[in-house]
Amino acid sequence: MKYFVTGGAGFIGSHLVDLLLSSPEAELVTVYDKLTYAGNLKNLQKWKTDERLIFMKGDICDKATLLKAVRGHNVIIHLAAESHVDQSINSAEPFVKTNVLGTLNILESAMLLNVQTVIHVSTDEVYGSISNGSANENSSLLPNSPYAASKASSDLIARSFFQTHGVDVRITRCCNNFGANQYPEKFIPVAINAILRGRNVPLYGNGLNAREWINVSDHAKAILAVLQKGKPGEIYNIGSKKELTNLELAKMICRLLNVKESRIDFVEDRLGHDFRYSIESKKLQSIFSDPLMDFEKGLENTVNWYEKNSDWWQ
Predict the structure, then answer these.
(1) Which CATH architecture has domain 2-179+213-241+278-292?
(2) Has 124 been annotated as catalytic?
(3) Where exactly does CATH 3.40.50.720 map onto the chain?
(4) Is 125 a known active-site residue?
């Protein structure tokens, strides 16, 4: 099997590449990555001598180059995206360009080259803030940030290529990820790095906004399950049911790093800050039943990784 992974030098993408190359089934894994600030070739370092891995620096918005690069691959796993909510609030245009038009280029390339399957990796943020209960795959899309809106738009375009052109597209929507190699703009590495640098942990608002958390390695396994056992045109939520407020999470990180909770610094809230995300993952469980990593153990491992790899995040 020949895999084409967009955004494969990023956080989630590199963990997926690890999983793919750990299987003898992988004849070729091509990582196609623009290497923006969140992409890092160090994330692929362990495979640098493996002839099955090919790295191509490229932009999914460059349709002509993308089309040439995709040729000859069986599967596209599409993770390349602008993903930082704060940045989307400050400037939405790059998010629309990359997440919407870039995804369109991926789908058109797949259609023209008869790619076997496309996995389009999305987010639970497309459902918007959930006051009670959990969103399932049939819930309405109610994105609130420009980032979430761009991802919801890309999901709809992906669905249209299945309905109109018969392209085997499968959409995954995952909850918040954590683990090693995450660029320090997301909350967990921000909190860890702040403490390691002797600074306070910045926490939006009153810290009661709630998120569902999954270890990135489990997310990668779930994506592979959707590829191997999922159905064309279907959407699969990837959740963990491990829900925490941001304040609870900040306190856990303080305890793991042996600092007082007074190091938490409440700051002005983000514009349009969604209060709670929660997704129902029963559909995924029919094709993926592996036990998930214990959250507390995974968080401890993550903290230890950042402590031991200051050269990476600095």
Answers:
(1) 3-Layer(aba) Sandwich (3.40)
(2) yes
(3) 2-179+213-241+278-292
(4) yes
